[in-house]
Amino acid sequence: MNQDGSIGILKLDDSSFETIMRSHSDSIVCVCVNSLLNVLITVSDDNSIRVWHVDSLAQVSEFLISNEKALCVSSTDHNVFFVAGFNSGYIRVFDLQKYLIVYFSLYS
């Protein structure tokens, strides 16, 4: 992850960095992988959560929650959901096949 919002690969054999994706307009703060669906989920300071297909590197979805910023994201390889925590205290569960929020709760 780069501070310009891009994602790249550091090649260990020659220590070179190759940028593979650019789309966020600010720093990426959290990344997780769901290998069941072969997607990468990124959270950025630009207030977006984006879902990328690992093989094609194409963005397949974007989530924006008005007036809230996602701080972290996590997923498991055993189902089609991911969870994100927001600066407001809300936790939201997203469906990666239907691209919608299936559950939310205020953490207290």
Summarize the SSE layout with pairings.
Layout: E1 6-11, E2 16-22, E3 28-34, E4 39-44, E5 48-53, E6 59-64, E7 70-75, E8 81-86, E9 90-95, E10 100-106
Antiparallel strand pairs: 1-2, 3-4, 4-5, 5-6, 7-8, 8-9, 9-10
How would you describe this structure to a colleague?
This protein is an all-beta fold and 108 residues long. It is 0% helix and 58% strand. The chain has strands at residues 6-11, 16-22, 28-34, 39-44, 48-53, 59-64, 70-75, 81-86, 90-95, 100-106. The strands form three sheets. Strands 3-4-5-6 form a four-stranded antiparallel β-sheet, with no helix packed on it. A four-stranded antiparallel β-sheet has the order 7-8-9-10, with no helix packed on it. The relative contact order is 0.16.
Give a brief outline of the structure.
This protein is 0% helix and 58% strand.
The CATH topology is given as Thrombin, subunit H
CATH architectural arrangement: Beta Barrel
Radius of gyration from CA coordinates: 14 Å
Question: What is the succession of H and E elements?
Answer: EEEEEEEEEE
Strand content: over 45%
Spatial separation of the terminal alpha carbons: 31 Å
Annotation keywords:
four-stranded antiparallel beta sheet, Thrombin, subunit H, 0% helix
